[in-house]
Amino acid sequence: MLAPSPRRTVGVDEAGRGSWLGPLVVGAFAVDASRVADLRSLGARDSKELSPRARERAYDALVEVGAASSVELDPAEIDRHVALGQLNELEARAFGELLRPCAPAVAYVDACDVDERRFGRRVAARAGVGVRVIARHRADRTYPVVGAASIVAKVRRDRRIAELERELGRPIGSGYPSDPATIAAVRSLVAPGAERPAWLRSSWSTTTRVLRSRPPRPDRERLA
Hints:
Structural class: alpha/beta
CATH topology of the largest domain: Nucleotidyltransferase, domain 5
Helix content: 40-55%
Largest sheet: 5 strands, mixed
CATH architecture of the largest domain: 2-Layer Sandwich
Strand order of the largest sheet: 3-2-1-4-5
Shape: globular
Order of helices and strands: EEHEHHEHEHHHHH
Number of strands: 5
Number of helices: 9
C-alpha cells in the first residue's frame, strides 16, 4: 500500500450510469501534481464534450503522463443495488476501491449523489486512512484531473460496448434507452417473456416497457 502523497493527484468519474446496456465503468486517473496544469492541453475535460475519436486521442495522450485505472459494474450487480435503493452506495464503494491503491492526500471525484458532501464522505470511508475526498457535481468540468478520469471511464466503456456489439453480431447504438438504435437492437435480440440477457439492465423501466410492447404488425391481407 502506498503512503498518501501530496505529490499525487487523483480524479475519479464514471460513465454509463444511465445506460440500458452494458457496464457502468468507474475510471480513475492519477498524476504527479506537477503535471496537473498540462492536462487541459492534453484534452482532459468532460468526456461528453468530445467525439469518440477525440476521446481516444486524449486518452492516448493522458496515459503518457499519468496512470489510468477502472472498474466495471455489470448489469446484474447494478440491478441488485437498484432494487435496494443503493446505486449511489455501489458507486461510492467503486470510487473508494480505485482510490485506495493510489493513496493520494487529496482526491477529486464527480458526485453522483444529490448531496455531494454525503457522497464524498462515503467515498472517503473506503479510500483509506489519510485520503481527503472533494466531491463536486460536474467535477469533470471544474477539475482537469476529473476530466481525465471522465475520459478514462468513457473510453473504456465505449470499448466494452464495441466488444458487446461484436459478440451480438449487430449494431446496438450507444446503449442508452433514448437511442432508437438501442431500442431496435433489444427488440430484435430479446423475445417478450424470454430470460433477460446478462448485458441488459432488467431494473430499468425501459426493459419492461419495450419488451412488453411491439410495433403493430402490418395487416398483410389488407395490403394485398
